[in-house]
Automatic annotation (TrEMBL):
<dbReference type="Pfam" id="PF01613">
    <property type="entry name" value="Flavin_Reduct"/>
</dbReference>
<dbReference type="GO" id="GO:0006208">
    <property type="term" value="P:pyrimidine nucleobase catabolic process"/>
</dbReference>
<dbReference type="GO" id="GO:0042602">
    <property type="term" value="F:riboflavin reductase (NADPH) activity"/>
</dbReference>
<keyword id="KW-0560">Oxidoreductase</keyword>
<dbReference type="GO" id="GO:0010181">
    <property type="term" value="F:FMN binding"/>
</dbReference>
<dbReference type="InterPro" id="IPR012349">
    <property type="entry name" value="Split_barrel_FMN-bd"/>
</dbReference>
<feature type="domain" description="Flavin reductase like">
    <location>
        <begin position="10"/>
        <end position="153"/>
    </location>
</feature>
<dbReference type="InterPro" id="IPR050268">
    <property type="entry name" value="NADH-dep_flavin_reductase"/>
</dbReference>
<dbReference type="InterPro" id="IPR002563">
    <property type="entry name" value="Flavin_Rdtase-like_dom"/>
</dbReference>
<protein>
    <submittedName>
        <fullName>Flavin reductase family protein</fullName>
    </submittedName>
</protein>
């Protein structure tokens, strides 16, 4: 199977964009952008996200006592880009408050899900993290959309930073 073509085909499924955050080692916060966030169950309230095994933050995510899923709004592409990069100070100038297990809740996110670990599953080159939602909040704003390898607006036009 051609992995590039497979990835391109998967990119035909539009997704929202979230930043998963947690308290990392030695109290330092961690965060990573992802579009692999999904609802699993309403009773109990469960969500999942998947993390590439090569991600620098994977050990900290697996060791965390809790996570926050921060769903980004259409004007937060720069924040998405920031948390998608490795090797930079992702938190410089980022306004947030602490949620469950001291996981950062990003200011301006259109939804927050404060979660506790529930299960971890091996899945090829990724690890699937299932989390139990303890608290959540949402507002009625437009989401940041990722489709075909680019950020988009709801009408299909590309967002600009």
């Amino acid at each position: 199977m051609d992995t590039r073509q497979f990835r391109n085909a998967l990119g035909r499924f539009a997704t929202g964009v979230a930043v998963i955050t947690a308290k990392g080692p030695e109290e330092a916060p961690i965060g990573m952008t992802m579009s692999s966030f999904n609802a699993v169950s309403l009773d109990p309230p469960l969500v999942l996200f998947s993390v590439d095994r090569r991600a620098n933050s994977l050990p900290a995510i697996l060791a965390a006592e809790g996570y926050a899923v921060n769903v980004l709004g259409q004007d937060q592409q720069p924040l998405s880009d920031r948390f998608a990069r490795a090797g930079i100070d992702k938190w410089a100038g980022v306004t947030h408050r602490l949620g469950h297990a001291e996981a950062p809740l990003l200011e301006g996110a259109i939804a927050h899900f404060e979660c506790a670990p529930h299960a971890v599953h091996e899945a090829g080159d990724h690890v699937i993290v299932v989390a139990r939602v303890l608290r959540f909040a949402a507002c009625d704003e437009a989401p940041l959309i990722f489709f075909g390898g680019r950020y988009r607006g709801l009408a299909g036009t590309a967002n600009t930073p």
